[in-house]
Amino acid sequence: MFAIVEIAGLQYKVEQDQKLFVNRLKGDIGGKVSFDKVLLTVNGSTTIGAPAVSGITVDAEIVGHLKADKVIIFKKKRRKGYEKKNGHRQSLTQIQITGITGFDNKKEEKKAAPKAKKEAVVAEEAPVAAKTTKKSDSETAE
């Protein structure tokens, strides 16, 4: 079971007990956050939102705040004496997905019931086919 959720403007594929880094979120370490903009869920069947799936939320816990590795931006123009060096460190938050909630189990039970009806219909049709073969056997014996 997984979901695609939008967190801080970016889309992530998340599963339960997964740890991931996202752009800095408000909240303290150990705090709980919930994301309700779920774009797609797969739980036996695929549910696609338009634009979001209603009733489903992704719950997470903030593990820590940190900074990413430094990225160096270096600009240079040959033979002009122009050089510019700049750096950037992105602020990140590490979260752990605690659960994906809001799935309706009643839909799964309804899907299981029609399969049982189809099996009963197939079982009733089987003896009819046996009777027709017996008639053909008796006709060939005469």
From TrEMBL:
This protein binds to 23S rRNA in the presence of protein L20. The keyword rRNA-binding applies. GO terms for biological process: translation. Part of the 50S ribosomal subunit. Contacts protein L20. One of its GO terms (cellular component) is ribosome. This is Large ribosomal subunit protein bL21. Coiled coil: none annotated. Residues 105-121 have a biased composition (Basic and acidic residues). Residues 105-142 are annotated as: Disordered. Belongs to the bacterial ribosomal protein bL21 family. GO terms for molecular function: rRNA binding; structural constituent of ribosome. The keyword rRNA-binding applies. Keywords: Ribonucleoprotein, Ribosomal protein, RNA-binding, rRNA-binding. It comes from the Bacteria.
